[in-house]
Automatic annotation (TrEMBL):
<dbReference type="InterPro" id="IPR036761">
    <property type="entry name" value="TTHA0802/YceI-like_sf"/>
</dbReference>
<protein>
    <submittedName>
        <fullName>YceI family protein</fullName>
    </submittedName>
</protein>
<feature type="domain" description="Lipid/polyisoprenoid-binding YceI-like">
    <location>
        <begin position="11"/>
        <end position="180"/>
    </location>
</feature>
<dbReference type="Pfam" id="PF04264">
    <property type="entry name" value="YceI"/>
</dbReference>
<dbReference type="InterPro" id="IPR007372">
    <property type="entry name" value="Lipid/polyisoprenoid-bd_YceI"/>
</dbReference>
């Protein structure tokens, strides 16, 4: 007879209407353009109270990119950037989650854009868990980091007559998720 109890591993689904992935990049070396991906989904397997032993898997539809400019969005969807026809999603899969203070965490994982996978680290706080008015358990995580887009093959650019380039290589990213425990 076995005395040890099996530990149940919880599954949490991202609430797509309360989660988003945003980016900001320098434009013509004088301003910053911001955008968002409107379609994001994913799961967290584990417990928010024990996040260091959890696994995160996030999928972002590249065709849902929005910068509030249709012409620019179409260019971002082209072969010059995300090539959504061939690569309809990008993904982030955690490898290690480390507590950094009372609420902050460092999440290291593999980010795949197009057919290139590189390790990135995002940092930010965990909020919750809480019980919503409908009886569901929820928690939130707001993370930030930056990448060099050229490392993922996103190299399109145009030289400016006055020096510099049209689009900066450094891209600031932020991913804000709200997750609901799967019943």
């Amino acid at each position: 007879m076995e005395n040890a109890q099996e530990k149940t591993i919880s599954q949490w689904n991202l609430d797509g209407s309360h989660s988003q992935a945003d980016f900001a990049v320098r434009h013509m070396m004088i301003s910053t353009v911001k955008g968002t991906f409107e379609k994001i989904r994913g799961t967290l397997t584990g417990e928010p109270t024990d996040l260091e032993n959890a696994k995160v898997d996030i999928r972002i539809e590249t065709g849902s990119v929005s910068t509030r400019d249709d012409k620019r969005d179409e260019h971002l969807k082209s072969q010059d950037f995300f090539y959504v026809e061939k690569y309809p999603e990008m993904k982030f899969v955690s490898k290690k989650i480390k507590k950094k203070g009372k609420e902050d965490f460092e999440i290291t994982g593999d980010l795949t854009i197009r057919d290139v996978t590189k390790e990135v680290t995002l940092t930010g706080p965990l909020e919750g868990p809480i019980k919503d008015p409908y009886g569901f358990e929820r928690f939130g995580v707001s993370t930030e980091g930056s990448i060099d887009r050229s490392q993922w093959g996103l190299k399109w650019n145009s030289a400016l007559e006055t020096g510099g380039v049209m689009v900066g290589d450094k891209v600031k990213i932020s991913v804000n998720i709200e997750a609901v425990r799967k019943k």
